[in-house]
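Lab meeting prep.
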Amino acid sequence: MTNPFRPGRPFWKGAAVGLLAAALLGGAPAHAAGKGTIAVIVPTLQITVLQTESQAAVAEAKALGYNAIVLTHDFNTAKELNDAEEIIAEKVVGAAWNVADPAASAVAVQKVRAAGIPVINMDRVLTQPQIANYSVESDNFQCGALAAQAFVADAGTKGTYAEIAGPPHDAMAATRSAGYHSVLDKTELKMVAQQSAPYDRTRGFELAGSILQAHPDILGFVTGNDSIGLGAAAAIKTQGGKNMTVVGIDGGADAVAALKTGDSAFRATAAQPVADIGTVAVKTLNIVLTGQKYDQGKVELLPCTLMK
């Protein structure tokens, strides 16, 4: 499929992404719908929770009478800025946007806003939330507290544990960690190691492996997301750990599958309401576009649900 903005330029990469894109776009040009086009921008369509989020946003846009296109930036702010320039040129009427970086994405968002295109920040925590018209996010503090409660219920209230949080520059990671500690710090549990990692299974595996070498008797890990947590659970299995507990946050398909097996140290996840985030983001964008009153710069938090 070619890019509807720039003929001849590939718009989607990878067969799976291309099939989903074709289903979402339906082959229509960006100006096809009478109410205009909404851009749904997410990091990638290779992660199931982001597929769900983008699909929900597209479905709501179409239900409200808009055309919809989906763009991905692969957490690359340079690509994100290029996409911003293209949707400005195409005169997209609004954007539901899951940004590449909490701080650096401000450049692209502000560029789009300066062109008169409203932006609803979707899912990712912005360092400066006021640069978007409105934000719809998971309640990441509540997510962390829920996962911590599951850890205590499974591992107990006495002993030692380790934390592998998300990236140190990520506001979402800090909020989730604070949610964990709002519960864990009130118990007799002692944290003996704390590391930060990208939201990546491989790094979770590597860091957990090192921590287990130094602290083989810990009860388990609380982690910044499911990918880190699944990596930690794999490290426990590799090193022969028994009766350990790992909890994460997101509620993605891989995490749910691990819970169903019953033989993984990964015991619980605080599932984000990703479909609701996509739907509410586009509903709010429609409110902005139709001139209705809304709270400029507000951050709306949607609760997570515990899965175990």
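Slide two material, second protein:
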Amino acid sequence: MIRWKQVSALKDGDICSETIMGSAKDDIIIKNGDKITHKSIQKLHQRGIDWISVYEEESFDTAVNDLFSEEKLEKFSTELSKVCEETLRDGRINVEKTQQISDEINQEIIEEYGEYVVPSLVKLKKMDDYTFTHQVNVAIISTILATEKYGKKKEIIEKFTMGGLLHDMGKLWIPEEILKSNNRLKDAEFDIIKKHPEYGFKIAELSGVQDTAILNAIRYHHERWDGKGYLQGLKEHDIPLEGRFLMVADVFDALTTKRPYKVEWEPYEAVSFIVKQSKKMFDPEIVRLFLLSFGLYPVNTKVILNTDELAIVVGNRRGSMTRPIVKVIRDDQQIEIDLSQEDKISIKKVVKIRMLKD
């Protein structure tokens, strides 16, 4: 919804719904979709502008048949944290317990993965949770991608789930002062971090993991399509398929997670990055599978429709990469619109959501 607002009544977080130009062609005072800040309010006052139109910042209910409940995600995260603690203490992974977590994730996705995809990922409650929540998230993403490729062949898909859960176990052998550093790592420290895929491979082998696909996921998830990854610098199809899957899942979750040394990216920004890095960092076929599953506009992306309404993406129809399911507020009611079924409504632009944050 768009409404006019006096500049004196604007507040941080309002979203401008028009582009206001000065007298010169390149004199842009404020752009459509920009966040209103104290600085932009001052600029509008200085230019003698008293009124502008803004998008109403609505509170959307986005609970749309998520694959996993918040409680179940927390359960996976807690159980995997215990596995990590045991591994650190005993030097061996509790493979049986990890397999139980994997089976639950695998079964839920295989049973529920249908025409509509609304993936849920673990939300961090504290920074120290990163290692195991990240591994759960990567397992979920990898399983979804594998389901897109292989259908509901559990015996194949479960290898990607287990690979995701175990892919960063090698970080348990990295000194904490490096792993949890809030500062930019020195080259020598990063060289140590880069050894974690090999460490994880060795831990898994010592723990009795024999499946080649799982071991490949752990060992090769930082190899790049262009050969510029680590540790072995493998290129294109020389990289085992499982490593190529995990590379996409790993980067997407890492980009969209807040860490002490970086802000999190919005899902749309991360997807755009993955698309741009196709044939560079990522196998283009895996990127295609990712877009088929998650769409170009992932869940929680805020967009402006061609009706000039502010909407939020709440799901995607499989295979419909550019026309997601969105919610808008009309007459104080939330309306769900499947854009893949609408000829006259489309996305005009993505709101710069990162600008809406403090």
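Talking points for slide two:
The radius of gyration is 22 Å.
Residues 248 and 282 are 7 Å apart (CA to CA).
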